[in-house]
Amino acid sequence: MSEAKATKGRNHGMTLTDHTTGKSYELPVLKGTLGPSVIDVRKLYGDTGHFTYDPGYTSTGSCESKITYIDGDNGILLYRGYPIQELAEHSDFLETCYLLLYGELPNAQTKAKFVNDITYHTMLHEQIHFFFRGFRRDSHPMAVMCGVVGALSAFYHDSTDISNPHHRMVASYRLIAKMPTIAAAAFKYTLGQPAVYPRNNLNYAENFIHMMFSNPCEEYKMSPVLAKAMDRILILHADHEQNASTSTVRMAGSSGANPFACIAAGIASLWGPAHGGANEAVITMLQQIGSKDKISEFVRRAKDPKDNFRLMGFGHRVYKNYDPRAKVMQQTCHEVLEELGVKDPLLDLAKELEHIALSDDYFVQRKLYPNVDFYSGIIFKAMGIPASMFTALFAVARTVGWVAQWIEMIEDPAQKIGRPRQLFTGEVERPYVPMQKRK
Ligand code: SDX
Fold first, then answer.
1. Residue 26 has what DSSP assignment?
2. Helices H / strands E in the chain, number of each
């Protein structure tokens, strides 16, 4: 998006009045090209001596960004202005990676070069394979990915000068290229099978499937439908504005930390069941529900404020409408199950659960709809991916979003090290108490 189109700038201020002193303060309002304007509070503490207070950042913009736009009320998701539905329909994952990184769709030459550059970075340094052996065979793949991706920071000393744009891009390419190889190796490790090397004659999604499911003893027959479904799933998960894991990467990166270590921090955050770990939790929940007659009991528990059970795959901080990715995911679900000739009772259960929840006042009033994680697990399960790998797959896809946002953060002249303040409600100052005087 060219600067000329961006209409960032003051269009009207806000006046804040402190009723204890009667003083008023003018706060500038900044307007973007789409979405809500922001009240610029950068001078608030200096002018008023007050902090803002917003646990979970429900009303706080942490940065300016040009990468992804979400309209939660209307269920809109744009990557660099392109609707997610059109990218899922017409693009492919590496083209989408180029778009997220560079801001424009590539032409035939730049696309061919980008695909070539990524393809020839997919192999891991042989020493890295030794890291896997330090884990128990039953380790969760996300634990392995946190460890191995963090360990990349010990390998690449030629691309860690984050002030150097070339270094930033080299680190980003390596991360996008190697994430599927690491994720697949983590999966193979849990099976006791040898890691499968990437093949340069396969596209990104095919390579990931091949590394996950092939073995040295026989030729692997690739299903074009599965490869296309995997590619589309990667597109759907590639970026999503300032979500928890992306904000984690930005926060870690704001101190100038090693890029590989920052992405490992993002993987850790994504693993949580309230975030990327929800896709695994949805399958566990559906298996716990087991049959349609049990749905009402689980819906009752989800509505009970005293019960911390929540309907996994439902609700979203931003989407107060159907997550547009969930719609594409549901359609992909039907295609994959049909292609595989799989009849998964969990799909019928999920659709019945969605139907019941979306007609229940509790969910309607709170605008709780299925999100990207609600159907994805059923597809992954049908593809033979174990539930423990669902979030690892999400991490493979989201790596491009993390690195694109990390680069944007570093290049943003307004960016500083992230250092929020607090509302302190602890003990006021008090003298030390010697042991003999304690109760
Ligand atoms: C992802 O941010 C992103 O963009 C994330 C993501 C991405 O691409 O990066 O989209 C990926 O993380 C999707 C979300 C996956 N998580 C889940 O499916 C877990 C289940 N969902 C919830 O935990 C919850 O909806 C969150 C965490 C997703 C959002 O939580 P919020 O925005 O903090 O909402 P909230 O907790 O303030 O809920 C508002 C109300 C509450 O009830 P009241 O206090 O008003 O009575 O809705 C209720 C909540 O109890 N509620 C739910 C619910 N989600 C919210 N009740 C039952 N089941 C749910 N799933």
1. E
2. 18, 7
Nearest CA to ligand 1 atom 54: 315
Paired tokens of 439:
């109760």
As a whole number of angstroms, the distance between CA 214 and CA 64 comes to 43
Query: Is the C-beta atom of 278 inside 6 A of ligand 1?
Result: yes
Q: What is the pLDDT of residues 322-381, one digit of tens each?
A: 899 999 999 998 889 998 898 889 999 999 999 999 999 999 999 999 999 999 999 999
Residues for the chain: how many in total?
439
- Ligand 1 centroid vs 281 CA: distance in angstroms? 13
367 CB within 6 A, ligand 1:
no
Q: Is the CB of 316 under 6 A from ligand 1?
A: yes
pTM of the model: 0.94
Instruction: Give the largest Cα separation in the chain, rounded.
Output: 79
Torsional sign, CA 295, 296, 299, 304: negative
Residue the block writes with tokens 């174990």: 386
Ligand 1 centre to CA of 312 (Å) is 8
